[in-house]
Design goal:
The complex is a heterodimer.
Chain A (H helix, E strand, L loop, with lengths): L3 E4 L2 E4 L5 E7 L5 E7 L6 E8 L2 E4 L6 E3 L9 E3 L8 E8 L7 E2 L3 E5 L1
Chain B lengths: L3 E3 L4 E4 L4 E7 L6 E7 L5 E7 L4 E3 L2 E6 L4 E6 L8 E8 L5 E3 L3 E6 L1
Parallel strand pairs in B: 2-11
Antiparallel strand pairs in B: 1-3, 3-8, 4-5, 4-9, 6-7, 7-8, 9-10, 9-11
Classes of the chains: A mainly beta, B mainly beta.
Chain lengths: ~110, ~110
């Protein structure tokens, strides 16, 4: 069982609020990812990180930002939430020497 | 055309049946291939990686056909607990993992 955690699991928030979605893993994985998934749709990469102080935007345009100050922690921040941000956000990680990704339980975000 | 394509289903099969899913990919440089299982409103969980020689894990068998650029998943002796969405995932050796939209399976009692 993968040890990757996300909080909060569910969040309902008003438009304009700043939010941070937390993701932590205890496996020492250097590579971490954030995906966005709408119901019935495929996952889309919004950010990834190769290691500490390394972050890149993914293929899906996103108004969010990420940081990677510690290996185990990869938070995602929305400075001003909008209804279009309503979605499920999934964090994943993998070891540098392996190709399989492991996912956290996700954060289901609703912006009113 | 999507980079990874799957039949969305649903595939409705009786318990004990054998069911097969295919997935096609467009990038001939793809290097790694996976099947993930995703239950409703949950995270994807790795079912199996797919190797060139094909591989089997209990009731599940995965095959890769590089020439035709597709991978397959065969489930034998379906159980009610196999009901889920099965995601095909392809990696080109970089950061990029491309996910299919998934194939829904419903196993009926």
């Amino acid at each position: 069982e993968a040890d990757i955690y996300q909080t909060p699991r569910y969040l309902v928030i008003g438009t304009g609020k700043k939010i941070t979605l937390e993701c932590s893993q205890t496996m020492g994985h250097d590579k971490m990812y954030w995906y966005q998934q709408d119901p019935g749709m495929e996952l889309h990469l919004i950010h990834y990180s190769y290691g500490v102080n390394s972050t890149e935007k993914g293929d899906l345009s996103s108004e969010s930002t990420v940081s990677r100050i510690r290996t185990e922690h990869f938070p995602l921040t929305l400075e001003s939430a909008r209804p279009s941000h309503t979605s499920q956000y999934l964090c994943a990680s993998r070891s540098g020497g392996e190709t399989e990704q492991f996912f956290g339980p996700g954060t289901r975000l609703t912006v009113l | 055309r999507k980079e990874v394509e799957q039949d969305p289903g649903p595939f409705n099969v009786p318990e004990g049946a054998t069911v097969a899913f295919n997935c096609t990919y467009s990038n001939s440089a793809s290097q790694s291939f996976f099947w993930y299982r995703q239950d409703c409103r949950k995270e994807p969980k790795l079912l199996m990686s797919v190797y060139s020689s094909g591989n089997e894990d209990g009731r599940f068998t995965a095959q890769l056909n590089r020439a035709s650029q597709y991978i397959s998943l065969l489930i034998r002796d379906s159980k009610l607990s196999d009901s889920a969405t099965y995601l095909c995932v392809v990696n080109d050796g970089t950061y990029k993992y491309i996910f299919g939209t998934g194939t829904r399976l419903k196993v009926l009692a």
